[in-house]
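Researcher: We plan to redesign the surface later, but first we want a full-length starting point. Tokens attached.
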């Protein structure tokens, strides 16, 4: 989850950098959408930014779930192995 938050933050900073002339989607939204009164273009760029952020968040959540599942499976296998080794020592 930390990686998804970091990438989303970088995307937000790059969009804000566009506002001060740094280029990117933020620059397109400000230059063509706001300054030239092309509201549709500004809305489209904002929607694209929201979609990108949502994709990053969903991929981060999916990756987290995959890792947690793998860790839990490994932990269960380790616990079963530990129980069998204790039983074999007792027998």
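Model: Full-length starting sequence:
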């Amino acid at each position: 989850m930390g990686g998804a938050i970091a990438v989303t933050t970088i995307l937000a900073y790059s969009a804000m950098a566009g506002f001060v002339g740094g280029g990117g989607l933020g620059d397109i939204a400000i230059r063509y959408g706001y300054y030239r009164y092309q509201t549709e273009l500004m809305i489209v760029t904002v929607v694209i930014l929201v979609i990108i952020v949502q994709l990053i968040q969903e991929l981060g959540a999916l990756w987290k779930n995959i890792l947690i599942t793998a860790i839990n499976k490994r932990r269960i296998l380790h616990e079963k192995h530990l129980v069998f080794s204790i039983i074999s020592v007792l027998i």
